[in-house]
Amino acid sequence: MKTTINQVSNHVGEEVVIGAWLANKRSSGKIAFLQLRDGTGFIQGVVVKAEVSEATFSQAKNLSQETSVFITGTVVEDSRSPFGYELQVDEIEIIHEAVDFPITPKEHGTEFLMDHRHLWLRSKKQHAIMKIRNEIIRATYNFFNEEGFVKIDPPILTGSAAEGTTELFHTKYFDEEAYLSQSGQLYMEAAAMAFGKVFSFGPTFRAEKSKTRRHLIEFWMIEPEMAFMDHEDSLRVQENYVSYIVKSVLDNCKLELHTLERDIEKLEKITVPFPRITYDEAIDLLKQKGFTDITWGEDFGAPHETAIAESFDKPVFITHYPTKIKAFYMKPDPDRPEVVLCADLIAPEGYGEIIGGSQRIDDLKLMEQRYEEHQLTGDAYQWYLELRKYGSVPHAGFGLGLERTVAWISGAEHVRETIPFPRLLNRLYP
């Protein structure tokens, strides 16, 4: 019976056939241990010389790394294995023999591994990170569907920018200027006015010349927008969503977290409510921690975010940033217009901002004023202004960066390991 590694628990004591690749092996004179993978998981195949033909044992000892095979064997429980099962091998059918696989079981430099990303994805740790990414995506759809959100897909090619055009990729759209989307938010606001609660999940692009472990040129964003909801409502959705995806990973990716040696006790603390501090309180906290040069009105960089996060064992909201350093569409605090009703969610353990969100301006006159201040008077933004003209309502939304979230939950050192084929400042290959 053909099966897959993730289904062997249903076939204990039965003989099965699994199509697999050889990830690694070791052998002695009387027994060979084959580390097999099939895309769904990893399992050890045990080949005992006295229990198989001479030809089969010879095959097992001489298999090369990444050779593809059909393995026939009996599934047995194995309490020593994190997976819980192994395969007592009876027969081996070679499909294709791999020769001189470049990524051997030894240390390789980062650039070498990135040049061979198409092959590096096969490794156990990279496989585990991608499975956790997949679980976060699955949980994201579950959460927003359960909460009554409608999935809407904004365009990738746009004629306007959500937060200014200085860090956008320009392109020609026939005879017009166009940009690769840096956010679907403006379009999601339009969708919220039609459907109430909406979310998008898609690629975004930032032409930001940054080489930090938190930055990618192309990354994926989850961007919900909610009509008839304010800043406080949005914060509650955000913390519920983040705690939901963390719990889903804890429940469904135990083996992957074990493979990555992730400290799950830290993840088990991620429950609502999340702590909140204002921008003003964050400034005071930073000064206490030795950042004496920081002044009110500056944005926070990675060292600031890390220092703030060290004071908490959960993600922390930093709210009410100065109006002048935030996007034109954010609603000022009615009681203090020099700050806006916004929040950044900072992940623990030095992973930085994973969510940015705010209540949006819903007043037509104020938005017109913002247009003048930011020189957004062209036709490209006319449709966005009209959202305030025809049935405007209080509304709020946020964007979660998938790769930073995967890095934090999986414990990956760099976001380049959290996306299948990363696009970095110096990398467009493979």
From TrEMBL:
Pfam families: tRNA-synt_2 (PF00152), tRNA_anti-codon (PF01336). PROSITE patterns: AA_TRNA_LIGASE_II. Belongs to the class-II aminoacyl-tRNA synthetase family. It catalyses: tRNA(Asn) + L-asparagine + ATP = L-asparaginyl-tRNA(Asn) + AMP + diphosphate + H(+). It comes from Aquibacillus salsiterrae. It is an enzyme of class 6 (ligase). Its EC number is 6.1.1.22. The keyword Cytoplasm applies. Keywords: Aminoacyl-tRNA synthetase, ATP-binding, Cytoplasm, Ligase, Nucleotide-binding, Protein biosynthesis. This is Asparagine--tRNA ligase. Residues 130-430 form the Aminoacyl-transfer RNA synthetases class-II family profile domain. GO terms for biological process: asparaginyl-tRNA aminoacylation. Its main location: cytoplasm. The gene is asnS. GO terms for molecular function: asparagine-tRNA ligase activity; ATP binding; catalytic activity, acting on a protein; nucleic acid binding; transferase activity. It comes from the Bacteria. It is found in: Cytoplasm. One of its GO terms (cellular component) is cytoplasm.
